[in-house]
Write a structure and sequence with these properties.
mainly alpha; 127 residues; 61% helix; 5 helices
Length: 127
């Protein structure tokens, strides 16, 4: 029995394109928003809901910044300003009970989904 020898180049697995960073950030946003919704539904502590909401909005913002070719410097409010988001977009999320925080996060994510849809209409920006 003789084994065939293959050239080294054919022994490598085919390259699989990895998703664009923008799409990875958007998927993180969707996951975090889903977690926030579940936490509110289960009546979990406000701090947990606030964290999940913050992460959802930050991830959505980073996706939009990535699409626009702008850097994220670690300051969510400054980044929202870079995107020309409405000044009150983050207001509801920062204060109040868990359901109110979730409503604010959903509003911010909806605005960024709309922004992304204008910039990249070829993709669905559901959340």
């Amino acid at each position: 029995m003789q084994l065939e020898s293959r050239p080294a180049s054919s022994a490598r697995p085919p390259l699989v394109a990895s998703p664009a960073p923008r799409d990875v950030w958007w998927e993180h946003c969707r996951n975090n928003l889903g977690i926030a919704r579940l936490l509110v539904h289960e009546g979990r502590p406000e701090a947990l809901v606030a964290t999940a909401c913050w992460m959802a909005v930050e991830s959505a913002c980073r996706a939009a910044l990535e699409q626009a070719g702008l850097p994220y410097a670690g300051d969510l409010e400054a980044s929202l300003e870079q995107l020309a988001a409405p000044p009150d977009i983050w207001e509801l999320q920062q204060l109040g009970r868990p359901a109110r925080r979730l409503a604010g996060a959903e509003r911010a994510v909806a605005w960024m989904a709309s922004y992304l849809k204008r910039m990249a209409p070829d993709r669905t920006w559901g959340y």
